[in-house]
Amino acid sequence: MTHFSLLDYTLFGLYLATSVGVGLWSARRKAGNLGDYFLAGRGMNSFLVAMSILAALFSGISYLAGPADVYKNGFGFGYAVLAFFIATPITTIWLLPKFYQSRFYTAYEFLEERFGLPIRLLASGLFIFRVCLWLAAATYAPALALEKVTGIPLWMTILATGMLTTFYTALGGMRAVIWTDVIQLVVLFGGQLTIALVAMHKIPGGLGGVWETALADGRMDLNLSFALSDRINLGSVFIAAAFLHLVQMATDQVSVQRYLTAGSLREAKRSLWIKLGFLLPVLVIFYGTGLVLYAFYKIHGDPLAAGLIQKEDQILPYFVVTQLPAGLPGLLIAAIYAASMSTISAGLNSLASATVVDFQQRLSSKPLATDSRQVTGARWITVIYGVLVMALAFAVSKMQGNLVESVNTVIGLVGGPLLGLFFLGMFTKRADTRGALIGSLAGFLSLLSLHLYQSGIFTAEKPAILVSFLWFSFFGCLITIAFGLAASHGRKAVTAS
Question: Is 223 left (phi over 0), alpha (psi -120 to 50) or beta?
Answer without folding.
Answer: beta
